[in-house]
Amino acid sequence: MMNAVPVARVDVERNRRILLDAAAGALAHDPDATLGDVARRAGLARATLYRHFSSRESLLDALRDDAVECAKEVVAGAQVGDGTALEALRRVVAGIVSLGARFRPLLLEGAAQDPEFLRRREEAFMPVAVIVQRGQRAGEVKAEISVRWVVAALMALLAAAVRMDASLSEEEVVELVFGTLSLGIQGTHSTQN
């Protein structure tokens, strides 16, 4: 009987994760997907969905929170102190691009107009500022460019890539975003082509 509570909690967390993943996929495929569509895609009953999310807005709020947390994890896991600054930036780009489907519904639903989402997204990208500063000290990144500008440009390029249609492969999107960014910020001591 003592195991009943932890097992139930694990099931609740598992179902929540399944629902968030299903919602990201369903809304990326069809921005007008209903909560019923999300429940079907998750393979769970509508009642289970409603126990977690009482409305479409509560589901979108949870997706925003989840996307920011995923972005934080990706940026933190990009080994921002390893290699050159440009190599670290490329790892950040690759990690965020891999989350593209998770961000697409949010951008289509207007998250880019939500000040709280924007604040939290900027906070998630704070380690990128450290990368840029390191790159400026090493001469890899132009010193005359504002660190804040580089971070904002990166976020804008990533948002544009997420909004694009899916005709490009993930690797092509990484190269497009990173190539565009790096061409504009490379300093005289850069080793990147």
TrEMBL record:
PROSITE patterns: HTH_TETR_2 (PS50977). The keyword Transcription applies. Keywords: DNA-binding, Transcription, Transcription regulation. The keyword Transcription regulation applies. Residues 13-71 form the HTH tetR-type domain. Pfam families: TetR_N. Residues 34-53 bind DNA. This is TetR/AcrR family transcriptional regulator. It comes from Rhodoglobus aureus.
